[in-house]
Amino acid sequence: MDLTKLETFVAAARTSSFHLAADELFLTPSTVSKHISYLEKAYNVVLFQRFSRGVKLTEQGELFLPYAERILGEHRALMAALAAAEVRLCIIPPHAMLPCLALLNFFEEAYPEYRLSISEEHGGHMSRLLAEGRYQLGICGDRYLDENLVDWHIISESRVVALVNKEHPLAGCECISLAELAGEEFVSLPSKTGVLGANSKMCQSVGIKYKVGITTEREENIVFFVAKNMGVALINTEYLNEGFIQRHGAGMAVPLPLTEDFKWHLVLAKAKRAKLPPPAAAFWSFALELGRQGKIPGKTDGRKKSVVNNYKT
After folding, report:
1. Is the pTM of this model over 0.90?
2. Domain assignment of residue 37, given as a range
């Protein structure tokens, strides 16, 4: 709803000046004049007497003013009520979110009085954004988070596997050690996502270097470049759902289980020691209870198909 013209009228009435109203609203005086003229034409009234040194409300303007103020006040009250019933949630990009899209739907069904406001952010930025209060809650991988800034609970778990080209010497193995990829060039998401740092730590733990040959911001491109034999990759088993590997790798990208027990945890996070408002607190408790009951899809070894087929924002 565009209430800009009513706001302009109220400001002009309060200041008795189109110029002062323009300064207050960061508009030009001509724009203020156009807004007033629009209202006068729309309601067939004359709202102001114009003078060289300012303006004065007419009788019709005096009648118009309390109604305009009431409409704007009701709109502010509406927006405040909506904000009070809103859960401000940031999430990592959609593919890794597949296990928890059902959680969002379940919450909306259980709490129709609350509205989810969802924005995508890179995992590497999430701790700071939560600590700054930009969002109330975040869903991302635990490897991306700063424990000094946020608290979190695990809501879904998957294993990390290697992805190699079908013609790679290790492609026929049932299982490999991450150390066997020493000297390989990796295809990776960029540092700002948090993935590069997390994968580097995994490689360091087995004594090899995470040497990145190609960086891409799109998960499907990781599969594409591996399929083109331009590098290997580390992915989590959620990539194996929904035919993602086959669709983007055309049968030329092969996932290989690792002997190391590297896990990727999807977590629900909040600013450290933050007191959540009721809607966000309800989401936090709801997600934790579903997790305890094992009702959040995604605790998968790659054979289970995700039950969620749509990405909702």
Report:
1. no
2. 4-84
